[in-house]
Amino acid sequence: MNLTKQDRAARTRRKLIEAAAVVFDRRGYEATTLSDIATAAGTTKGAIYFHFRNKDDLARIILAEQQQTEENALRPQPVKLQELVDSGMVFAERLRTDPLVRASVRLTLDQQATGIDRGGVFRAWRDANLAILEKAQERGELRCHVDLLATAELFVGTFAGLQQMSQLLSDYDDLPDRVTVLLQNLMPSIAVPPVLGVLDMCERRGAHLIAAAKSGAGGESAVAEEPPAAQD
Predict the structure, then answer these.
(1) How far is 58 from 53, CA to CA, in rounded Å?
(2) Domains defined for the chain, CATH in brackets
(3) Contact present, 80 and 139 (Cβ < 8 Å)
């Protein structure tokens, strides 16, 4: 197969991003050098400088890729709270299987990564959760006492703690199970009973959605129909 110069450049760029993700995840931001990344990619520092300005540039791209990979596997659901569930389950599965997402989390929590906006990922996820909760409230899916912003931030903060615990204890292998436990405890406090009864919080939900997106199946919803909502 003949590759054009543009194709080869794109492949080299991708290889460098993936190599940087592996090294950042293994060594952390401060200890990682461009020479380390070049060695992991099987190329030279010159190739890195052809595609990227510096180490900060690579780190920012990896952080941005985290948000893009989540969006690819998520689809609108007839019950809006299912979308909140899905965001957590897909992220958990990505952490188990995707080096780019692992590296992005390592960078986000790395206090020595002072050259990048580590809070941006947290703010973006909080805002995405808040948008889902606002739609859920409009549709009568939430209990009347729910504080939307506090709930959006609680989900992000609790997930961050769970993923760090899971990384230390099982290298993320048990993270989907831990997120299911989180959801099973959180959702009864915010969802009205008819909605709670149809939410799919199975630990395999994230893997199913990712597989469906890869196969082009559209990530069909496990919620067959929209339940009647009732305020408590």
Answers:
(1) 8
(2) 63-215 (1.10.357.10)
(3) yes
